[in-house]
What does this fold into?
Amino acid sequence: MPNRTGIVYFPPGVIEDRRPVEKLFYSISGKKLQRVTWVLSIVEELDMVSRQYFKKLMDADEIWECRIDIGRMAYRVLCFMDSGNLVILTNGFGKKSQKTPPDEVSRAEKI
It folds into this structure.
């Protein structure tokens, strides 16, 4: 039986009433939220995930991003890997440009 990937939120406690990734979830709704959770389920369930949905950031130390593109809006959930089959979600955000905001990458790296 293959090792399944697990997904957990970081930090395990609460920051400003919600974890940073949960703030993204509460800021979107309907089909957009369904698409975000669908991509996270792909990362959790599949052994090999397309770079279209999950890739390592080039200029960041061990930070990965779950990539969700819906029309002209892009949503990103940053994370890192622990023990090879545990994905720890750090923060999430929406963006309209190609470039990932450096302050969001910095936030993920601090964790």
About this structure: Residues 30-45 form the longest helix (16 residues). Strands lie at 6-9, 54-56, 64-70, 73-82, 86-95.
